Amino acid sequence: MNIETAIAMAHDAVLRQQPDGRLAVINENIAVTDPAANGYVVKKAFDITGDKLWATGNGWALMGMAAVADIAKAAGKIKISKNLCKMSNALLDSLLKTIWFMQTRL
């Protein structure tokens, strides 16, 4: 996937964000993991562009990734759990930087 496609996907996910933070929700989607799956591309869009628009969904994606990491660990999928934890740490770092950035602009 090229950068332009990834940013377009992230933009669509953010435009379809629900008030509770879930990304890319169409109609009555109640899934937890589907909206969280968009978190990585939204994080990358933020990393590439620095646009605060992309920071909006990271909290939801982080919660979803943590839940999936716990499930993977319980199922004995340690490598998947560790990879999700690494991605979650990067996402949390991005989220905290965004919060700091936004606070310094107020």
SSE pattern: HHHHH
Major sheet characteristics: none
Give the helix proportion (percent range).
55-70%
The helix tally amounts to 5
**Could you list the spans in which at least 5 consecutive residues all have pLDDT below 50?**
none
Rg, nearest Å? 14 Å
Inertia-based shape: globular
How many strand elements?
A: 0
What's the overall average pLDDT, rounded?
A: 76
Oligomer description: single chain
Rounded to the nearest angstrom, the distance between the terminal CA atoms is 36 Å
Structural class: mainly alpha
Strand content: under 5%
What would the keywords be for this entry?
about 110 residues; mainly alpha; globular
Structure, described:
The chain is mainly α. Helix content is 69%, strand content 0%. It has 5 helices and no strands. The radius of gyration is 14 Å and the shape is globular.
List the helices and strands and how they pair.
Layout: H1 3-15, H2 33-36, H3 39-49, H4 58-74, H5 78-105
Helix pairs in contact: 1-3, 3-4, 4-5
Quick gist of this model?
The protein is 69% helix and 0% strand. By secondary structure, it is mainly alpha-helical.
